Amino acid sequence: MPREGAVRQTVCTDINGFSLHAAVQVNAHDRQRLDQPCRAITQPAETRGMLWSSCVQAVPPLPYPIVFKRVAEHTPVLRTLVAERDSLRRRVLELQAAHEALARDRDAAAARRDALTGEAAALRRALEEAGAERDAVRRATGWLGPDRNAGWCPVCRADASFRVAGPWLRDDYLCEGCGSIPRQRHLQLVLDTAFPGSDDLTVHESSPSNDYLARRCARYGASQYLPEVAPGMVHDGVRCENLESLSFGDTSLDLFVTQDVFEHVLRPDVAAREVMRVLRPAGAHVFTVPKHRGLRCSRPRVEIVDGAARPLMDEVFHGNPVGDGRVLVTWDYGDDFESLFAGWCGAPTVSHVTRDRRLGIDGEFLEVFVTRKPAPASVAGTAVTEPRSP
Q: What is the pTM of this model?
């Protein structure tokens, strides 16, 4: 049996705050079934109850959402709309929950941001304070850069700047004025502070590598060890002296200076006694040698066999201002050096240690040693004054 043509039915209403606009197509024979529910949905509130009563007669009126759902149960289009509405409501609730979670995360992030901002401000203040302290230290130490600093050079006896020219400060920390290195500046500092007026004393230096003392001391003499020349003789303008057998007369010198020499002497005990012999009473031997940290007992590196040196361990050479430019190391001196040397020469030996970049003194093996010849009680006054620590 042919069905009547489809009729387009439009439904517009407001359901619990949701506007419902629906255009549905139904067959003509279903139209009457849909008319009355649609009129009940779309009629104003004051007539809705009456229309609904006429539709359902003796069935008591139900709350509006329930009515709508029951109508939707028998109307496929409305059932679909209700399902979509419910799905949208659930989605809205999910989005609201997500929004609340994001809001909580936002608040937590804001609190963390504020905390980090406070920490950053504290770090900036700490950096500013550290920078101020650094600048104060640089001003106090005369810092001129990562490898330079200003100060006062004991050799120049004037303001100077010092430069680090290499990793081994003992030889690479240079005065830009005179070219001196730390141990030379330290030795001059000890001479100036412990022996005031030393420029006017009779000074002899064995194996010098520079002319710093020669420029200062009016009565200065120097010598080198030349194996082929007899002690006391001059060869090519250089005087020869053997520390184990000096040609000087007894008590003829006020100061005897050696710089990094006694670690190359075969018999340092004999040399130490010879230096004491030529010094006047209260005279002093002022010298440097490498004193190895952590070496408890000094040790010889060679032994004398038939007048010749025979190595006891691997040979080590240092620079030499004469000859082939190198000289064998014969002794390693350790923690016992002062007492050992005092026992050799019969006079007390003290060490001076200074580490001050304002004076250009830094690095390894900085000790300057002073051995003073005892003055007899009958000697009243000498040319050399008592030492004072720098």
A: 0.63
